[in-house]
Automatic annotation (TrEMBL):
One of its GO terms (molecular function) is ABC-type transporter activity. It is found in: Membrane. This is ABC transporter. Coiled coil: none annotated.
Amino acid sequence: MTTTDVEKGTSHGLTNNTVHSFAWQDITVTVKDRETKKPKVTVDKAHGIVQAGELLAVMGPSGCGKTTLLNVLARRTELLQADICGCTYIDGEEISLQEFRIISSYVEQEDVLIGSLTVKETLNFAARLALPKNVGKAERLQRIEHLLRSFGLSAQSGNLIGTPIRKGISGGQKRRVSVASQLITSPKILFLDEPTSGLDSAASFEVINFVRDLARKHKIIVIASIHQPSTKTFTLFDQLLLLSRGKEIYNGPVTAVTQYFVNLGHAVPLHTNPAEFLLDLVNTDFEAHDQSLERELACLQNHWDMSPESESITREIRRIVSPNKISNQKQRHASAGTATILLALMHRAFIKSYRDVIAYGIRVAMYMGLAIMMGTVWLRLGTDQENIQSFINAIFFGGAFMSFMAVAYIPAFLEDRSIYVKERANGLYGPTAFIISNFVIGIPYLFIITILFSVVSYWLSNFRPTPGAFFTWTLYLFLDLVAAESLVVFISSVKPIFVVSLAATAFANGLWMSVGGFLVPLTRLNVFWRYVFSYIDYQRWVFEGMMVNEFATRTYSCMSTSTGCNCLYQTDLADQCLIDGNAVLKRYGYATGELGKRVGIILGITAGYRLLGWFALYIRRK
């Protein structure tokens, strides 16, 4: 079997003409128990074989090792913190991870889909991210149309998947979209983790029936973990692998399982769902202290180990696996090129961002409300000395609260990250492409927000009324938003839990406000906070830059009294009853000019957040 033979992008479309069997032998998974810290076997010497066109159900009670075994078979072991032994074979050969990912696809238990995309767009982007360069646009579109027809989704092709605000397709249709998005690349082996989770019995039957028909028609090997199927759904499977506490109880044809257990003295009662009966039989979680049940389960496990059926599987694996039959072929990347992946990710993110009001739409409205509030609270400030502090307060508010409100981006980023985790696990791309596309797509929206906010708040508040001053203010505010969003990306990548990310981001913003030079001038700030945190505080540099922009070339009138002028700041202009704005900067310890220095520092801090976010995504696999 050559690498070309196993590539997804062949002219055969969905039909598998190259992979005839998938086998595994002595799969053992050992983890450390969280409480005792002792080794615990979660899967024990599992073995089996599935032929092309067959549908295997991996069943067992909760915690029996179904998903663990499925991840090992799918070679997604990076998700497991465990010691793993055993081998998997494609037509009797051990192949590289890169080759295996070319011929296989994995459908998660949860439907990780972008709700603001249509059904057809979802399949289109899945194809653009996964198909090799030699598959042209015409063939890609042909595959999409074929899948839409095969899965009964043609009528829904233009419908949105669905968002919290806008209702989309049904749960059963979402499962079909999830499966179809993995079949777009013509895999030879398809892994499904709980494909009927959250569906009623009718929808469950519908999904499994589609998959069964697809497997038989196109000779695809399908392995699915499933919890408790209905009788109709259960009979759709060709093979059954029954687990309990990580050990095999049965592994063979579904049609033979009833007779197998009859021979052991466990006949399925009349009018009883066989799947439900088997799960009850091997589930001892609720009778953990019943010694007779423990002995019965051990007897079932030992009987299978010694059974002719188990020995038959072992002989079949030995027959197809020759000694030293290991593929030495060079690895080839059959996925899309780097540029293609980046363009597809940016295109997809762009569509999501303008359709999903949670990502930027709500934020635009929120910032506009903030701008109107700021402009009307600090309305038409004059150049009298009593307004100097009001100008300072407005500058702080404009920078700090714009930054703080970036927490609204957390839900949208966490949704994007969940898509990234799924696609990375399928070997489509890594954190670099994700971070770059996320950053690039955010830039124009942040710029639009900055312009809208500045146009309203800057002129209403009567900051220095020159084009240069306005655009300098806009530059600092834009960099403030970019840095704030990068902080959100970093924190949400480290701990992708909404409440935790929200709390951590709010705490970080509170810290930056405290050491930014407004609440306590830098000249009087405690040395620890100044040298440890203030210099890496982007809000500090934004506030300093805005202060210089406002006060460096502006003068303010003093209060006239019967005895002369009463100036809050003594400058060389006191004899003219004026205050030079540089006196305000001197009190805060700010030097004039240095625009390039401040911009460079803010950009460096932003790059630091993005790099830290990249590193967090790189080391976290889920």
